[in-house]
């Protein structure tokens, strides 16, 4: 019970990490362990089949779009499958808690919109259908990057896939081309070049002897663990062990940016609102966020704003926000349910949803469409997507993100503790061991 409560708290916080950072612009019964037929070969049900789907919508436009996709699927699937989509409020992540309560109690839908962070709790209670055999026999399986399937597996804590990819948000680096030109800086293509750019872009532009433009807008408050992770991986570290020399060096790089004055002095307490305000006011030349901020950036700067993926060092990683779909183990018509969630993953539903919401598609075919390739921020998101991932989803993650990470990193930035001690604390607090 303690573990279930901990995971519920973890998923509630993690589900809101990206959501709090801005929104994007504009058939027969089958056991999960049985060998599933290819979707293209699945026999049409002799009787009409109804699939119930739960989802949330961030605004009325998204709700209208979901219902339009349902209508299109129902009219075009040709297999007597009717999807009934029922909307429920997101309510700060309580959507997932309410879904758990419903399904655990023997009710709930056949399929549902999803956040990866909810996966461990549902898998631990055997509530999700295993999609391995369905995906193995799916004609469109190769349209989705293997790295994304790997993230689905990571979320479930096994080598099996319980979550069907749908759309993502990927962190990248926003920058001001005019500032780069004035400082004689090229767009970084390596991690070392990125660190050097932070230095060169930090300038006194009015000659009063004080820095008025900082190279990088650092997020040291809650939520800052997302961009921070890119520094750790760039040095060759990862999230399995924060005490390695490589991970510690990534922390030292992060701390050095603050100590050397290449980020605003308020960085230890700067959250999403502060880093965006600093960038838009011209106080910083670079900052990290996702495509959800692009409309506001264009409104402020017009053509004088662009983006690039966080560059690779020894390794490369960026943080991924997600909205996916799942099929529940209790679903009595799994073949029909998979037809629906695959329509959302690589069918017309994929193109429609990502076009309207501005989220990053998971289908390679949709990614290549002009509407996505001609958007400079979408193109960078797509470029960065293969290196995007998530933090471990543990029953300690909520406290780690909410309090341990921001307090520990603030201590390291201000010199109260060493980078080594900070990493030891982060390791112990997340994993319970050094």
TrEMBL record:
PROSITE patterns: PROKAR_LIPOPROTEIN. Residues 23-43 have a biased composition (Low complexity). Residues 1-22 form the signal peptide. It holds the Pfam family SBP_bac_8. Coiled coil: none annotated. Residues 23-44 are annotated as: Disordered. It comes from the Bacteria. Keywords: Signal, Transport. InterPro entries: Bact_solute-bd_prot1, SBP. Belongs to the bacterial solute-binding protein 1 family. This is Carbohydrate ABC transporter substrate-binding protein, CUT1 family.
């Amino acid at each position: 019970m303690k573990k279930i409560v901990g995971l519920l708290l973890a998923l509630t916080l993690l589900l809101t990490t990206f959501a709090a950072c801005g929104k994007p612009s504009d058939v027969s019964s089958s056991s999960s362990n049985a060998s599933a037929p290819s979707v293209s070969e699945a026999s049409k049900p002799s009787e009409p089949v109804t699939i119930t789907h739960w989802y949330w919508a961030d605004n009325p436009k998204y709700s209208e779009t979901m219902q339009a996709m349902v209508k299109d699927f129902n009219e075009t699937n040709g297999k007597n499958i009717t999807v009934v989509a029922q909307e429920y409020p997101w309510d700060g992540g309580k959507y997932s808690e309410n879904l758990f309560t419903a399904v655990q109690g023997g009710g709930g839908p056949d399929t549902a919109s999803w956040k990866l962070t909810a996966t461990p709790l549902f898998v631990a209670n055997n509530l999700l259908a295993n999609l391995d055999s369905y995906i193995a026999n799916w004609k469109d399986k190769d349209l989705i990057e293997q790295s994304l399937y790997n993230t689905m597996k990571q979320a479930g804590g096994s080598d099996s896939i319980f979550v069907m990819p749908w759309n993502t948000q990927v962190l990248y680096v926003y920058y001001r081309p005019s500032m780069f030109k004035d400082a004689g800086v090229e767009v970084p293509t390596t991690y070392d070049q990125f660190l050097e750019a932070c230095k060169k872009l930090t300038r006194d532009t009015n000659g009063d002897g004080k820095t008025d433009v900082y190279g990088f807008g650092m997020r040291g408050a809650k939520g800052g663990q997302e961009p921070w992770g890119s520094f750790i991986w760039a040095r060759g570290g990862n999230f399995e062990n924060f005490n390695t020399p490589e991970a510690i060096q990534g922390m030292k790089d992060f701390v050095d940016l603050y100590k050397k004055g290449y980020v605003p002095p308020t960085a230890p307490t700067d959250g999403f609102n502060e880093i965006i305000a600093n960038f838009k006011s011209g106080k910083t030349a670079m900052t990290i966020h996702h495509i959800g901020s692009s409309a506001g950036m264009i409104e402020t700067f017009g053509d004088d704003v662009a983006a690039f993926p966080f560059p690779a060092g020894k390794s490369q990683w960026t943080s991924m926000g997600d909205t996916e779909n799942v099929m529940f183990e209790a679903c009595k018509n799994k073949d029909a349910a998979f037809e629906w969630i695959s329509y959302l993953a690589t069918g017309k539903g994929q193109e429609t949803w990502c076009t309207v919401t501005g989220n990053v598609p998971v289908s390679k075919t949709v990614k290549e469409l002009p509407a996505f390739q001609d958007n400079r921020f979408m193109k960078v998101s797509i470029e960065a997507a293969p290196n995007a991932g998530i933090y471990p989803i543990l029953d300690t993650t909520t406290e780690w993100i909410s309090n341990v990470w921001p307090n520990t990193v603030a201590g390291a930035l201000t010199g109260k503790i060493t980078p080594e001690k900070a990493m030891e604390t982060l390791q112990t607090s997340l994993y319970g061991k050094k």
